[in-house]
Amino acid sequence: MEIIISKNSGFCFGVKRAMDKTLELAHSNKEKIYTFGPLIHNNQVIDYLEGLNVFCASSMKEVGEGPIIVRSHGIPLADYQKAMELNVEIVDATCPYVRKVQEIAKAEFEKGRQVVILGNSGHPEVIGINGWCNNSAIVINDESNIDSISNYDKISIVAQTTLNIELWNRLTGIIKTLVVDAELYNTICSATRDRQKACVELSQIADAMIIIGGYHSSNTQKLFELSKKYCSQSHHIETAEQLDPKWIENAGTIGISAGASTPDWVINNVVKKIKIKVGRQTMENENLMNEMLEEIEKSLRVPRRGEILKAKVVQISDDEVVVNIGYKSDGIIPKKELTSEEGVNLKDILNEDDEIEVMVMKSDDGEGNVLLSRKRVDALKQWDDLKVFIDEGKPVTVSTKEVVKGGIIAYFGDIRGFIPASHLSLNYVSNLSAFVNEELEVKIIEFNKEKRNVVFSHKEVLEQGRKKELESLWAELEVGQKLQGKVKRLAKFGAFVDIGGVDGLVHISELSWGRIKNPGELLKVGDYIEVVIIGLDKENNKISLSLKPILPDPWSLVNTKYNTGDVINGRVVNLTDFGAFV
């Protein structure tokens, strides 16, 4: 008999992220912690969390002042507003992929398009998404009510992240025949697609399939439905105790798949029970012997370079940490492979008996020990964090360390990246060292996890900020407005004046009521002058300024200064066929 665990089984990224946030908060908070609805659809995990003082709340009013954790399914926009009104502290663990669907629904609704959600109308994720488009979405889960959308001219379609890809293809195919202007956003999570694909492939070769996950878990139910199509002996259970030995009696190949809310330990318990039921571990002595043999075999196997292992801290010194990795030799983690921070006492960041993950750098450091790194494991997780920032379009904060050819080396945690000189500032940078040992907010412009390559841009963040500043400034400007400005540059045709973040032009004809040959006759760079806006061209980013409205109009003084018949001295400035200008 062969037991095969399907690829991508168990906790998905979003659920693991929510669990990590919850456990971190639970270990640092002595007060009660609440989750808005069950954190995940798994009763065993919920029981475990209650033991850590983490409880489920059905409304914000139950919480007091919090904290309350928003689960990976997300919540309606109105619930965030309600939390603010009640002064409830929110820890947002919404899955980034779900948040993306929420933002699409909100944006399409604000465009005036009818939002359609393909999914289960009663599922918390769908309820949450609908709450981001004023609860106006049409929710479709099958063909029964699909004809109703033909009444709409413009629709935008999103999917519950755990939707069956076959259902998405079938429903969107029908919808495209009913509505001409239909925007499709396939928001099914890639992990969901991969999990479902692997489950289908395994169910086609297995004699029996065991699907593990909460009975209320939408993605687990979909795995079960897919598995049944190809393997009639498919069974859905929550725990190992629910496994019926009759299901696997005559099975040569047993396939196991698990939903996104199923922790590894639940899967492992099911595997162990299957082995016991088929007689592989029928006696306690056999059990102990097998475990002992496994440990011996494990201790003899040489760890491979790049392999990630579980390790238990056994000794901490000033320069290194000794750990037990179940191998015949100890593992050594040098200080530089634990932290990048200087002057850190290792006993402040680790304790004996702590369990950590490490990466093998060398199976033998020359003294028989295995050389390990914790930093490199952290870096792998940080690559996943960077991917989330890219998906969400958000900037990250990096620490700049050194100048190299063409730019600066910067670190995101333990990940080494590069900022090209042309992406450090809005203007040309001649002295790159001025940017060293700084914390900079950057956008990720190149990302390749496999090649460990990432390129950052501070310039893009500055441009984004500059764009917002200009939009704010343009909103305040109007023709006829008087402003204080600083002369930035002189040209033959006029003067460029900074009026608070944007330059305007005072044409030479607007510098004086009289005729001048060069703006330098009246102004110099650095002068502060008062100007009046006489023209705005936002499309071409041009502002026309003038000094003349501020200066006395000479023609208004003519009647008081001169009388008919007066004899005065003057200078001839121009001669024409029809007379002279004096």
Number of E strands: 29
Number of helices, where a helix is a run of at least 4 consecutive DSSP H or I residues = 14
Gross CATH architecture of the largest domain: Beta Barrel
Spatial strand sequence of the major β-sheet? 13-14-15-17-16
CATH fold node name of the largest domain: OB fold (Dihydrolipoamide Acetyltransferase, E2P)
Assign a percent range to the helix content.
Answer: 25-40%
Inertia-based shape: elongated
| Termini gap | 113 Å
Strand content: 25-35%
Structural class: alpha/beta
Summarize the structure in words.
With 582 residues, this protein is of the alpha/beta class. The protein folds into 6 domains: 2-92, Rossmann fold (3-Layer(aba) Sandwich), CATH 3.40.50; 98-188, 4-hydroxy-3-methylbut-2-enyl diphosphate reductase, catalytic domain (Cobalt-precorrin-4 Transmethylase, domain 1); 195-293, 4-hydroxy-3-methylbut-2-enyl diphosphate reductase, catalytic domain (Cobalt-precorrin-4 Transmethylase, domain 1, 3-Layer(aba) Sandwich), CATH 3.40.1010.20; 303-372, OB fold (Dihydrolipoamide Acetyltransferase, E2P) (Beta Barrel); 379-464, Nucleic acid-binding proteins (OB fold (Dihydrolipoamide Acetyltransferase, E2P), Beta Barrel), CATH 2.40.50; 480-582, OB fold (Dihydrolipoamide Acetyltransferase, E2P). Helices cover 30% and strands 27% of the residues. The chain contains 14 helices and 29 strands. The strands form 7 sheets. It has a 5-stranded mixed beta barrel. A hairpin with a 6-residue loop joins strand 14 (320-324) and strand 15 (331-334). Helix 4 (96-110) packs parallel to helix 5 (124-130) and helix 7 runs parallel beside helix 8. The longest helix is centred in the last third of the chain and has 19 residues, at 458-476. The N and C termini lie far apart (113 Å). Mean pLDDT is 85; it is low at 280-286 and 296-300.
